[in-house]
Amino acid sequence: MRSRRSVLAVPGSSPRFLEKAQGLPVDEVFLDLEDAVAPLAKPEARQNIVAALREGDWTGKTRVVRVNDLTTQWTYRDVIEIVEGAGDRLDCLMLPKVQDPTEVVWLDTLLTQIEKTMGFEVGRIGIEAQIENARGLVNVDAIAGSSPRLETLVFGPADFMASINMRTLVVGEQPPGYEEGDAYHYILMRLLMAARMHDLQVIDGPYLQIKDVDGYRRVARRSAALGFDGKWVLHPSQIDAANEVFSPAQEDYDHAELIIEAYEHYTTVEKRGAVMLGDEMIDEASRKMALVVAAKGRAAGLSRTKRFSPEG
Ligand code: GLV
Ligand code: MG
């Protein structure tokens, strides 16, 4: 499992940002050819990105390039130039504004052709699908199952809010006038269900008020609590918050590892199914919950501070 707690957006038109991103402590970078790049700057951005992938040091980071969406004329050239130029230095392509599973199938097929032409391992490059409008959300189950290359679904809140006419310009915040609940709950849960049905990760999108780190943290906690794996960061100020909010707390991580170890001991050595760990009753379902927290903790680089001993 790749860790994707913090996913940094880097405009492909800026050699300075492409350089700076390499030194930042994020789990993933996506080098952007889409909305952060002006139409006339796109051809040069492709070249900048190929050069940055080939010559830069991206050690420890998942390397992703966001191409333009399939309603534009740019997508096929984005894919061909990036993958032919640097496909051996690339982990995934991100396809924005996906509305229909056929779009992902198109990208999968094109990737296979380029991989064969270039002599790359076929199927190694993954796909991240951004869900950013009503049609994409309604079709999200089929999209999530459309290719074995898919690694994650990504929520695009800015485009999404625009697409459904939600009455707010502040991405991530509740629209004024709606006090009853969380206006994003349905969308986030819908994405989460589709992703988990196909064992994909699911990533929350940007928070645009980059000076308001408390606001970022509040919005990030909301999707983290539901089960999201990470969130975009647009600025270095948001990175620590993302890494922290999407890592399990040390205490929860220790607890999860203890449950796994204790359950293993009691079910195999003592052949019992539901057992006590201190004051807590644990069973097979507890083990499954613990496996999730433990996997996230391990991926985030946490180490154990407690060990299980059968005596108590
Ligand atoms: C990201 O692409 C968004 O639209 O929020
Ligand atoms: Mg978008």
Structural features, described:
This protein is of the alpha/beta class and 312 residues long. It folds into two domains: 6-245, Phosphoenolpyruvate-binding domains (TIM Barrel, Alpha-Beta Barrel); 250-299, no CATH class. Helices cover 45% and strands 15% of the residues. The chain has helices at 15-21, 42-55, 75-86, 101-118, 134-138, 140-144, 157-164, 185-197, 213-226, 239-245, 250-269, 284-299, and strands at 6-11, 28-32, 62-66, 92-95, 126-131, 150-155, 201-204, 230-233, 275-277, 280-282. The strands form two sheets. Strands 1-2-3-4-5-6-7-8 form an eight-stranded parallel β-barrel, surrounded by six helices. α3 (75-86) runs parallel beside α4.
Instruction: Provide the spatial order of strands within the biggest beta sheet.
Output: 1-2-3-4-5-6-7-8
Q: Which ligands, by name, code or SMILES, are bound?
A: glyoxylic acid, magnesium ion
Architecture of the largest domain, CATH level 2?
A: Alpha-Beta Barrel
Tell me the Rg in angstroms. 21 Å
Q: Under the CATH scheme, which class of the largest domain?
A: Alpha Beta
